[in-house]
Amino acid sequence: MSLAPSAFADRTLEAAGVGGWEMDIATGTLRWSSVTFRIHEVEPPHTPPLSEALDFYPPEARPLVADAVAQAIAHGTPWDLELPFITARGRHIWVRACGRAERDGDRTIKLVGAFEDITARHELAQRAERLSVVARQMTNGVIITDAQGLTEWVNDAFCRLTGFTLDEMRGHKPGHLLQGPETDPATSATMRARLARGEGFEVEIVNYTKQREAYWMAITCTPLQDASGALTGFIAVESDITARHRAEQEVQRLLAEQQRAEALLRDVLEALPSAVSAYDPDLRLILTNSAYAAMFPLAAPFAQPGTPLEALLRQAAQAGQYPEAGDSPGERDAWVAARLARHKVPSPAHTLALPEGRFVLASESRSESGNLVCVRMDTTELQQAEAALRIQAEQDPLTHLANRSCLMAALEQQLAPAVAGLADAGALLLFDVDHFKQINDTLGHDVGDAVLIEVGARLRARARTNDVAARLGGDEFAVLLPGLGDEAALAARATGLLSALTQPMQIGGRQLDITISAGVTRYPADAADALTLMKNADLALYEAKRQGRARWSAFRPEQAVELARHTRIATALRAALGQGGIQVALQPKRLLRGGHAGFEALARWHDGTHWVPPAAFIPVAEATGLITPLGTAVLDAALARVRALRDLGHSPGRVAVNVTGPQLLHADFVTDITALLFRHGLSPADLELEITETVLIGRAAEQIEKTLRALRALGVALALDDFGTGFASLAHLSRLPIDRLKIDRSFVAEIGQGGRGGVIARTVVGLARSLGMESVAEGVETDEQLAFLREEGCDAAQGYLFSRPLLSLEEACAYLRTATEAAAGRLVRLRGA
After folding, report:
1. What is the pTM of this model?
2. Distances from the Cα of 361 to the Cαs of 189, 341, 351, 720, 799, in angstroms?
3. Could you read off the pLDDT of 108-128 as tens digits, one per residue?
4. For the chain, which terminal residue's Cβ has fewer other Cβ atoms within 10 angstroms, N or C?
């Protein structure tokens, strides 16, 4: 049988669990369907009026329903609301109330609608919303996929972690975007297989961010199923474990390093020549090395890990490993107790006696963990060597005099009572052999040692019983003279001692004449401590050398002032060299047959307040190693002056510059000369280098000779300065490419004075002529000297008779103009004749 449309609709709504209702506007009556009654939990057929029906809603929902009804009646507006509801039995549920108006023209005549219990659906939506909020707030990443593994949703934490947005992930398999080169292929394959079977998994894998930065991730993936058990997707929770993984890697690295360190420690322990044993905080043996067994063969059989130190010591003592432990049980007990006490509080290193006259140096230390480490080093050979050294500790091995340490100890011993007025005053004499280096260089070190031995023998033979004669090192000697505080007695002693020491020596079949320079200082008058006394004696020795050597000099307090002055000069000179403060004066040289012969460049230095004499700063430069930069500065300034004179139209001739041994020994000296000439636009023929005879003596002579030959091949002229005052031999003159011999001013000064200077000057001139060299006289100041030199055939001369050194460029220009005018006048006279 067929149903009426309204009946069919009611049956359909009932089957769907939806109630229906209608309200006649004119009568205000309501009609409910059976489902509507059931939702209200009201027994039909009673239908409440609208006002009572509204009471089923809680107070906060009633205005919404009343307003919806009013709008529908007034304007025909439909409504669809989800609202809280209270049934007749007091149950709180959620309902969906829908309604619409049936109108006749512009007038509403009926309201009809549907009524549905949506409590289950609402609670499900609430749970879903809460889960969504939880998922969004999680610090772990969450990703939901469909059954095929395509991404449907990710939370904010996932986006922050990976850098991908939901839109970028949606529709993609996560692995396609997140995996990279360091991802383990096996782990990735396992994940794909489990997903294909609809199974979950837990893995740790390397993923990559959108910026392709690798990170470690722990993933827990769970399949999702519907009510029928069918797979609908997967939900995965991801935790960033990069920090943990790195920490684990660091732990593994540290463990590996620890294992390597332990292996290395074992290797080191086995390689050590010292015996090593280690004990735990309870003094039980942990380990020993191979050297332990070799050093303690009687104790080694008892040295097993875990053995108490007390038992090990007792058994080793009984076996005779430690002679000092004694023979009786009581003595050994006392020794063991003492050793245990020492081990409990490790003491400084100490020596242990072993059998057969052997000795070991023992040391113990406690680690922070409380372990005791004992190290034993065999010092038998060292002990024997120290015994031998003690025998020789106070003796110089060459001369068998006292050595420096012995002298210093004796000084301290003598000074203390003398300063306190409990002993007589005394003196210290310090001396060395003059020009001892030349003896070594020319005659050999064997001869030099023989000289030192002879000096030591003479000194020992003339020393009084209470004197202390010592060799301090090299050719330096000292004599401590107790009781010689009187100046007159000290002077007599010093003079007599030097006289005895400098008597001719017969060494290796030849007679040697040596001289000695000495410095003397008194105590406690000059100093109250050994170091100051030695310094005073050294200052006095320096003064003796400065005065010409072969003498002794007494310490004067002002010598300390002179030393300070020496230091100030050195400091200021070093600054001047760095700032280009060195100048040159040009000393003219004249040809004795007439005409200008060039200049000699002389170093000049103004320290800001006055001109410092060359005799004051050149020795300082030699003593402090500044002579090479000083020589370079003079060369540069001399060539610059010649260039300036050339640029002003003058012909200055060749400029001569003194060079020293250290300069000639410099590996780049010839190259530096070439560079200086090139910089100033001059040729090698414009330069002459003057060397003294002393640079030709010694073991470096061969190297200097090679340098001189290279300079001569370059075209630089060479002159031997101060000839006759040094040790150059005819062999040097015949072998070296010398162009000129310069007669020292000391010989020129004696011309006409009855001395031998004239004879020496005549000899030098003749020697130069016979060797094909030129001769140049220095320091010519009188007409008599000039006449003599002309008569002997000397080629050139320089000195105040012709001109003082010319400091300024203007003075040099004026001198050259005068020389040129004189030469022109002489030429006119010659042509007229």
Report:
1. 0.45
2. 66, 18, 5, 64, 75
3. 999 999 999 988 778 766 665
4. N
